[in-house]
Design goal:
The complex is a heterodimer of chains A (244) and B (478). Chain A has one domain: Rossmann fold, CATH 3.40.50. Chain A has eight helices and twelve strands. Chain A has helices at residues 40-48, 71-76, 94-108, 116-129, 147-161, 177-191, 204-209, 230-238, and strands spanning 2-11, 14-24, 29-33, 54-61, 64-65, 79-82, 89-93, 140-141, 165-169, 196-200, 214-219, 222-227. In chain A, the strands form three sheets. In chain A, strands 6-9-10-3-11-12 form a six-stranded mixed beta sheet, sandwiched between helices. In chain A, strands 2-1-4-5 form a four-stranded antiparallel beta sheet, with helices on one face. Chain A has a two-stranded antiparallel sheet with strand order 7-8. Chain B has 478 residues and is an alpha/beta fold. Chain B has one domain (2-472). In chain B, the strands form three sheets. In chain B, strands 5, 6, 8, 10, 11, 13, 15, 16, 18, 20 and 22 form an eleven-stranded mixed beta sheet that branches. A ten-stranded mixed beta sheet of chain B has the order 4-3-7-9-12-14-17-19-21-23, covered by helices on one side. Chain B has a two-stranded antiparallel sheet with strand order 1-2. The radius of gyration of chain B is 22 Å and the shape is globular. Classes of the chains: A alpha/beta (244), B alpha/beta (478). Adenosine-5'-triphosphate binds next to strand 2 and helix 1 of chain A.
Chain lengths: 244, 478
Amino acid sequence: MLKISNLSAKIENKSILQDFKLEINPGEVHAIMGPNGSGKSTLSNILSGKKGYDVKGEVLFENIDLFSLETEERAHKGIFLAFQYPLEIPGVNTNVFLKTSLNAIKKARGEKELDAIQFLKLVKEKAKELKFDEEKLGRQLNVGFSGGEKKKNEILQMSILNPKLSILDETDSGLDIDALKTVADGVNALRKKNNSFLIITHYQRLLEYIKPDFVHVLMNGKIIKSGGPELALELEKKGYENIN
Amino acid sequence: MRDKQIEDLKDYKYGFSTDIESFKAPKGLNEEVIKFISNIKKEPKWLLDWRLKAFERLKVLKEPDWQKPKYPKIDYQDLYYYSAPKSFKDKPKSLDELDPKLLETYQKLGIPLNEQKRLNGIAVDAVFDSVSVATTFKETLTKQGIIFCSISEAVQKHPELVKKYLGTVIPLTDHFFATLNSAVFTDGSFVYIPPGVRCPMELSTYFRINASDTGQFERTLIIADKGSYVSYLEGCTAPMRDENQLHAANVELIALDDAEIKYSTVQNWYPGDKDGKGGIYNFVTKRGLCKGKNSKISWTQVETGSAITWKYPSCILKGDNSIGEFYSIAITNNHQKADTGTKMIHLGKNTKSKIISKGISAGFSDMTYRGLVDISPKATNSNNFTQCDSLLMGNKCGAHTVPYIKNKNSDSNIAHEATTSKISEEQLHYCQQRGLNPEEAVGLIVNGFCKEVLQQLPMEFAVEAQKLVGISLEGSVG
Ligand SMILES: Nc1ncnc2c1ncn2[C@@H]1O[C@H](COP(=O)(O)OP(=O)(O)OP(=O)(O)O)[C@@H](O)[C@H]1O
Ligand SMILES: [Mg+2]
């Protein structure tokens, strides 16, 4: 599904990723762990299409060169990024945003767009599953949302859009224990349908709820070690310094 | 990959011109031309005298130049002041007699004049260059005693009303462009709502400039008699031409006791090309008089077109307890310029006014909000609330806020809030990640920004206006 080969990325002449490789197959869950500033968000931003990076290498998504696609075209093809710091958009109603987003994607895929009633039904159902306070859906997007609410809003959008590849950038940071479980439930529900995940996290706790197929350690711009779920436990014990 | 799409949308879709033979007054501004206009419209003597008086006054008035957007000197002797389709010399009596080219033009603009294809029950008066070409739904309205016709027709059929109210809100001597209009105005709409009548449909005028080298000087007069209500909407477009064209209209509104007038404008005159060549100079005087007690006048404007927009739809709150409102969205892109806002003049007791202004500038454009709130010593217990927000896109455009506040009454108060914000790269990226292209993203953010004003528009037009807002910012991102 996703194949990253020899990816290197610089920002303002500072090298962040070098010779980065990763392959994700349909239905797989990969977790990436790595120290602060190791380039995890940089990786997710580049995959999402964010501009401003000096990028070399090749990324294929379902055999299409990802760099030939605009950000929104990547979204249309099923790439979703739950941002580490979700943005506020004043004036834009959350429900309106979700509906516009879903219908833009449906339209691009040649699917039938949802009308207001169909959409409300869907959003209510998903909000309920994720224990997301419906009242918030009537508010401006992320404006006045708590840190955890913003993260949950990302997951709500993910479950509405049903993406093929979801990248979760530290979605678990800032979530309370119950919210962590509901978010994990949301991910697991999508996972059943053969969707893939790239989960960036600092804590192995999340990985207790979402069992990853692979765990990778990102340091010095590349993956220095890969393994199964046990690697996360080992990391927690030893720390990054002593992992090699 | 999306370039093609943008190219398609960028075109000003109303930019076509109609190849129709026109009948014009000789070029130039002089007594002869004024007499020509008055004569062709078979006007009574008092009106010709009134025009000539305005012309006398004009000779001593100076063109104002305090506005922010400057423009090259206009040669008033090099303009046509009257242009009408030739087929209009003998005015057609019904739509069947109307030149098919005109019907086609309005069809293309999305304004069917044919009543069978009624426009959601909206009565339309269509003004083409200097003349009104058709007014729809006349009979339905006449039954309720409502008069909705061209001002030329009103001069013939309801001279007493025209004589009583014309120039009472914008006096002959007001200022250069208003006085120019008084001297040479050609056509426009006239509305009278009798006492106690709630106008059952939206009244709307559609202005179209077609001929080149022609100024459009329309005059609109709306009178809401005691306890009546009317909602009126004007729309405007013009062909793409390389030279600048002048549009200097006067609009007067009069609300008597307990009456309400809601006046909405969706202004989409040709803005010029992306390098700033051509486009309309939209120098308009709009003023409403809340003459009676408990009366209300509400202006809503969506200004997206014109090379230069220069206007301050105002309310004179003379009646006690009267209310004035101004809701505005002004968008400038490329090299467009706007200097717009309102004046709220509080004269009566317990008068209230509200100003909500949303300015959006993109490209190399420049936007000024200029507003006056004046509370007179007699206007006790009055208040104003002003909210003035600017949104900038990119860093080559400008936004300025110039509020003038005069509170001469200690138990009245004025509250002013202003914000300036910018659409960030991060916000755009967030929206794009969720599947919106940059134009859709900007459209969504901008529509969110001006929601409060869009909500004021009649339903059918709100949707159109929302699209227009998106289209006018086309090409401003990416
Ligand atoms: N716009 C930028 N300009 C300069 N340096 C940047 C920029 N964006 C990121 N960096 C740098 O790139 C490095 C990688 O940042 P990144 O955000 O990818 O780290 P991360 O692994 O996500 O860290 P964390 O765990 O703290 O979220 C950091 O050293 C950061 O300071
Ligand atoms: Mg990060």
